[in-house]
Amino acid sequence: MPIKIPNNLPAANILESENIFVMYEDRAYTQDIRPLKILLLNLMPTKITTETQLLRLLGNSPLQVEVDFIYTATYAPTNTPQEHLIKFYETFDAVRGRKYDGMIITGAPVEQMPFEQVAYWDELCQIMEWSKTHVYSTLHICWGAQAGLYYHYGIAKYDLPQKMFGVFPHKKVSGFQGKLFRGFDDVFYVPHSRHTEVRRKDIEKVPQLRIVAESDMAGVYTVTAQKGRQIFLTGHSEYDPLTLKAEYDRDVAQGLSIQIPLNYYPGDDPAQTPLVLWRSAANLLFSNWLNYYVYQETPFNLSSL
Hints:
By secondary structure, this protein is α/β, with parallel strands linked by helices. It has one domain (3-304): Class I glutamine amidotransferase (GATase) domain (Rossmann fold, 3-Layer(aba) Sandwich). It has helices spanning 11-17, 25-28, 47-58, 82-88, 92-95, 121-134, 143-153, 200-203, 243-253, 279-295, and strands at residues 3-5, 22-24, 36-41, 65-70, 89-90, 100-105, 135-141, 158-172, 188-197, 209-215, 219-225, 230-233. Strands 1, 2, 3, 4, 5, 6, 7, 8, 9, 10, 11 and 12 form a twelve-stranded mixed sheet that branches. A hairpin with a 3-residue loop joins β10 (209-215) and β11 (219-225). α1 (11-17) crosses α3 (47-58). The two termini are 25 Å apart. The model is unreliable at 28-32 (pLDDT under 50). Keywords: Acyltransferase, Amino-acid biosynthesis, Cytoplasm, Methionine biosynthesis, Transferase. Pathway: Amino-acid biosynthesis; L-methionine biosynthesis via de novo pathway; O-acetyl-L-homoserine from L-homoserine: step 1/1. InterPro entries: Class_I_gatase-like, HST_MetA, MetA_family. The active site is at residues 142, 236, 238. The record marks 193 as: Important for substrate specificity.
């Protein structure tokens, strides 16, 4: 089944070239079926790139998905054309009266700032509070996960001695029988690119939270709450094959101190083509979230949420 997207969204051409089944609004309106309604709060500066990454994963599912895009009104994005925002995005005020099957809150390049100093923090808090009553399952990614854990449960983030940068092996926590990682191998890989972390000892003090996947090297990866109505991912399963390369090349060009991303280049040689170790796990993760935590749980009539 397809992912339903606005007419002329730039991501469409890329997705269609990869044989991802997309359906434009005009065609979707002729079908007598209720698609899953997903809200994407895109906090990343390169919004078109992030849209494409997440739509690619949402579209690799037998479910029809309809996506609305929002950005924060309290911070004006500078790396995305204004005409793109006007055409495809709304602000929170425009959607606060709607209800959604699922929501994704992306990461943001503000992780080294205290939460309260982020320009749009108050607005983000309003959105996260609203999600508790207007969204069935919310997926938080990277800084979005740290922000959600801090706002909802008071979990602090800590600076790392050096950037967690690379592709790391992960495993499910022993005894976890939930469906989020159904079909996963015993070891699976996830990209990380962050300067801060949340710690197991803090999470274990909160009875509502459960750590369900982690890495010996990268630490806590997945935390769930409310039987999957809140899911927190500290890594970037959605990353493209060359996303880490782009970040590495950017930092090198700026003369910043940056280590070669781990488990990424063959022989740790940046002249080589990166190895993609995480694509199948990423597709399965998003498919499981949509199927088991959204589609099979939300009511047909969203107004009853």
